[in-house]
Structures are given as C-alpha cells and as structure tokens.
From TrEMBL:
<dbReference type="InterPro" id="IPR020103">
    <property type="entry name" value="PsdUridine_synth_cat_dom_sf"/>
</dbReference>
<keyword id="KW-0479">Metal-binding</keyword>
<keyword id="KW-0413">Isomerase</keyword>
<keyword id="KW-0496">Mitochondrion</keyword>
<protein>
    <recommendedName>
        <fullName>tRNA pseudouridine synthase Pus10</fullName>
        <ecNumber>5.4.99.25</ecNumber>
    </recommendedName>
</protein>
<feature type="domain" description="Pus10 N-terminal eukaryotes">
    <location>
        <begin position="113"/>
        <end position="287"/>
    </location>
</feature>
<keyword id="KW-0963">Cytoplasm</keyword>
<dbReference type="GO" id="GO:0031119">
    <property type="term" value="P:tRNA pseudouridine synthesis"/>
</dbReference>
<dbReference type="GO" id="GO:0003723">
    <property type="term" value="F:RNA binding"/>
</dbReference>
<dbReference type="InterPro" id="IPR048742">
    <property type="entry name" value="Pus10_N_euk"/>
</dbReference>
<dbReference type="InterPro" id="IPR039894">
    <property type="entry name" value="Pus10-like"/>
</dbReference>
<keyword id="KW-0539">Nucleus</keyword>
<dbReference type="GO" id="GO:0160148">
    <property type="term" value="F:tRNA pseudouridine(55) synthase activity"/>
</dbReference>
<dbReference type="Pfam" id="PF21237">
    <property type="entry name" value="Pus10_N_euk"/>
</dbReference>
<keyword id="KW-0175">Coiled coil</keyword>
<dbReference type="GO" id="GO:0046872">
    <property type="term" value="F:metal ion binding"/>
</dbReference>
<dbReference type="GO" id="GO:0005739">
    <property type="term" value="C:mitochondrion"/>
</dbReference>
Length: 533
C-alpha cells in the first residue's frame, strides 16, 4: 500500500501494536497522499496488515504514487542528543517480530486510537459528517463556500510527542536510521478526509479564504490531566490569561514541549502512550459568517435625538438614537447577531445634520443573510426612512471593511460646514458683525471643552475657521455660517467656554455671546459613493 517502504515496517508494527489507528500510522510514516487517508478505516487496516506480511519479501517501495499538493508538517521535538532510551518505567520496549503482524493489527482494531483519541476514526465517518451538515443547514446561513476549522484537545500534542519518542527509541534500538522528525499534522489529515464529504453534502466547495466558517471543538475529559506534568517542568509557559478557562492551552503546551528535555519527558509519560477507554467528544459544532458592512449617509432632523444610545449609570435618558433607528432594520434583514456603528464624526443631541448627511457605516456581525441586490438595498433604505420622521438615510449600500477607512479620514482631515443661531447680550447692528465675513483662516486654540472632559483627554487643540458669513436677524440675534476644519468645537467657539477657546465670537464682538441652535450643513467626505435615485 501507499508509499510505505521496508524502513517503515518497524514504525507500522510498533504503532499498531500500541493501539494507533491506521491513519495516524500513515501520519507517523510521513505519507502525504490525501487519497490514502480518505480510504475506509477497515480497508486501511487490511492494507497495513498486508504490508506487514509482505514487507520481508519486498525490497523497495510499493504501490501508488498519488499527486497531491505539498502538506504541512509538525515538528514534534527540538533536535537533541543524548536522551536515554528508556520509557517511563525505565525499560526498553521490545519490537514485535514480523510474524506478529496479526497480533499488532488485532491490538489496534476496535480500540480508540492512542494518539488522535478517535478523531481520525469515528469523526471521519459519514454519520458525523451528516451531523455537522444538519447543524449548518438548520442555522439557515447564506454561503457559497466554507472554511472548516478544528479545535483539538491540547493533550493530543503530548500524545503525539510520546508516540514519536517511542518510535525513535525503537529505531535507535534496532540500529535503523530515522532521518525525519516531523509528521503530517492531525488537523491537516483530518481536513483531507472531511473536506470532500462536507463539500458533497453541503453542495459548495471548501475554500481557505471563505468568510463562512464551520468549526468543531473536540474535548477528551478522560485525558485532560495529561498536560499537567508540563507545568512543573516549564512553569513559565503556563500563565493565566484573560478569557482562558485553563492555562493548559494548545499553544502553551506546544511551547512547553519545545522546552522540556527528552529524558525528563520519558520519566513522566508512557512512550508510546496507552489507549484511552473513550472517544473524544465533539463539544461544539458552530457556524459563523464573516461580517458584512453597510454604509450610507444619514440626516438628523430632531434636536432631541442622540447619535448613539444615551445611557448614564444604567439609566436611558432618551428613548432612541440615530444608531438604533438605522440598525434595527439592518439587524432584522441581515439576521445578524450584533452590530457596530461608526460615523465620520458625531453631532450633539440638540444638533441637526442637514444637507447631504453624515457618512456612517455599520458592521453586521455573523449575519445569516449576506446577499442583497441593489433593488433590495433601496427597499431597505425606504423602510428605514418610512419608520421615523427624525432621520433619513441615503446612498445605502454594501461596502468592504477596507473602504470604511476613507470615512474615518474625514474626521480630522476634511472640512465641515455649520449654521449657528447666535444671541448677544448687547444690542448689535449689521455693521457690528460685518467684519466677520472678511476673516479667513482664523486660528483657534481650543482646550478640551468642559462638557466632554469626562471622556476626552485634557489637551489644547489648534483648529481653523476657514470662512464665516454673517446673517443679521435683529438686535440680539444673528446667524453665522462657518466652514471649519473637522474636529472644531463650534459651540465653544461661540461662547468661549470660560476662556478655554481663544479667540471666540464673544471676544471678537467684545460682548457676551451664546449659541441657541446649531446645524451641520455638510460633512465634506466623498464617501460612500453617491447612488442614483
């Protein structure tokens, strides 16, 4: 069978005798043919039995050469010299003779594999594949391809090391060379087997770049404590981390295995490892779609509506927000788990946003539905607009994650246009404010406003008022149209914020000034693209 040669016979016989499944035997012999791993478990066992029987009569490599892509390999140990040829009991294991092939096969057949803990046995069968696909189909996702991920118990790495050291010892005892110290990764072998079955059952191809992920989490409670001896040998590798229930993570175990000396490992763990009583448990079968991003522009017509939910000390101050009025429709249509709202700047609760609106984007997390036509997006936009007279959205469209960066650029780099209704304590005439129209590129020093000091760091920010145009109303009121650098605090420029913004309208007019109303008339960010009506 396969690309096994006579030099592989001791490895095959030792592993089968120790209770290793046929697919793990192929992994330890570094067989990279994907097609071989997909053969039924019983057929592989018969082929290995036949190989052991015939190995003495054949002098070179037997059988099929299947063209497969290059495989990933896992290095099981650092290169070391001088390790004792002892197992954990201090004895040198004996290799069965060639005539004991049937005994080796019988000892492995019907048992849970001592290396993969059954993952390359029961969990490659059609029944498990159907179970996974039933979970996927019941979740009602839209997808055109999938990526399959596997989470393995960390003790598998310990068992792989133990099995390899057992092989290494036997080969050394027999005086046979062992050129390779890496094997086919269990995850890769598993995916070779499972991918074609999942693709056939789901009717879509496996694709490593797919945004739709099907994941399986395996656990093996019976052997959970097998990693614990590593914490004594390599305590620096096992440190508590946030969001981790145990310090014995797969990466921590691998790191410890790279550090521990071979002789120390052999004293604490059987080589090769013993067979467990129970198979792994498939704890979780999960589906997850990559995020979808929707962008547009919104107008806000209410002076009593915050951009995001206004909640202080757990108490909601206002019943709704721009974010909620838009997102509730998107969440329902995309059937997402959650969302993240962002925009090019923000306006205060009492400020309107007029003109062509403010750019915004919403990330929809784990959406079940991902495909929407342009016409469907128009209908969704209309549904949002029909639901409230406080906001309107336009140019609603699907965008990529990278495109959102263009929106964020506008927060500091672009210009914004405002209209402010201003009151003065002393009477004014038209000529008193006319000079404001001639001021260009007015430089401001704005210390962080008192009203936002609780959420913004204390700093002095230099900002520009590019142009101003005044509109006289009466002796105590006028409207001021401003074009400013993004990030300018307009309210503070009007009233001065107790001298924290210099100069300000009050100081320029030499009287007390305050702002009664403020409107954002334009946010000069050329994103997202304008759509035809």
């Amino acid at each position: 069978m396969s690309s096994l040669a006579e030099k592989d016979r001791p490895i095959v016989q030792l592993l089968l005798n120790a209770g290793t499944c046929p697919r793990c035997v192929l992994r330890f012999c570094c067989v990279g043919s994907q097609m071989l791993y997909r053969q039924p478990h019983k057929d592989l066992m018969k082929d290995l039995q036949e190989f052991l029987k015939n190995s003495e009569e054949k002098e070179d490599t037997v059988c099929l050469a299947v063209a497969d892509p290059p495989c990933k390999r896992i290095r099981l140990e650092p290169r070391q010299e001088g390790a004792d040829d002892l197992n954990h009991n201090g004895a040198v294991p004996q290799l069965p003779s060639a005539g004991d092939g049937n005994i080796a096969v019988e000892s492995s057949a019907g048992k849970v594999c001592n290396v993969c803990l059954g993952i390359l046995q029961e969990f490659c069968e059609a029944d498990f594949v159907k179970k996974v696909c039933q979970k996927v189909n019941s979740a009602d996702y839209q997808f055109t391809s999938f990526v399959f991920s596997v989470s393995l118990p960390p003790q598998l790495s310990v068992r792989e090391r133990a099995a390899w050291l057992g092989v290494k010892q036997q080969m050394r005892n027999l005086g046979l060379p062992l050129a390779k110290d890496d094997i086919i990764q269990l995850k890769e072998a598993y995916k070779w087997i499972i991918h074609p079955q999942l693709s056939e059952e789901l009717g879509v191809p496996a694709d490593g770049k797919s945004l739709f992920e099907v994941s399986v989490v395996f656990a093996h409670p019976e052997t959970d404590e097998e990693c614990h001896f590593l914490a004594t040998a390599c305590p620096d590798c096992f440190k508590p981390a946030k969001n981790k229930q145990s310090v014995f993570t797969r990466m921590a175990v691998i790191k410890a295995l790279e550090k521990i000396k071979e002789e120390h490992f052999l004293k604490h763990f059987p080589c090769p490892p013993s067979s467990p009583k129970n198979l792994c448990d498939a704890l979780e079968i999960q589906c997850n779609n990559g995020a979808v991003f929707v962008a547009g522009r919104y107008n806000k017509y209410s002076r009593n509506l915050p951009q995001t939910p206004w909640i202080i000390d757990g108490e909601r101050k206002l019943e709704s927000s721009v974010e909620e009025l838009i997102s509730e429709h998107l969440m329902a249509k995309f059937k997402a788990d959650s969302f993240n709202f962002s925009s090019s700047g923000r306006e205060d609760v009492d400020v309107r946003t007029l003109g062509n609106g403010r750019p915004f984007a919403i990330e929809l997390v784990n959406p079940r539905r991902i495909r929407f036509s342009a016409e469907e997006m128009k209908r969704l936009q209309q549904a949002i607009n029909d639901s409230s007279d406080k906001i309107q959205v336009r140019d609603l469209q699907l965008v990529t994650r990278s495109a959102i960066g263009r929106m964020k650029e506008g927060e500091e780099e672009k210009t914004k246009t405002y209209s402010a209704l201003i009151w003065t304590d002393k009477a004014i005439q038209r000529e008193d404010i006319a000079f404001l129209d001639d001021i260009k590129e007015l430089k401001l020093d704005q210390k962080t406003p008192l009203r936002v000091l609780h959420r913004r760091p204390l700093a002095v920010r230099c900002r520009l008022i590019h142009t101003m145009k005044s509109e006289y109303i009466d002796e105590h009121h006028f409207r001021l149209h401003l074009k400013t650098q993004a990030g300018t605090y307009i309210k503070e420029f009007v009233h001065g914020d107790f001298g924290r913004t210099k100069p300000n309208i009050g100081s320029l007019l030499n009287r007390t000034a305050d702002i009664l109303e403020l409107d954002v008339e334009s946010v000069d960010v050329d994103w997202p693209p304008t759509l035809a009506d």
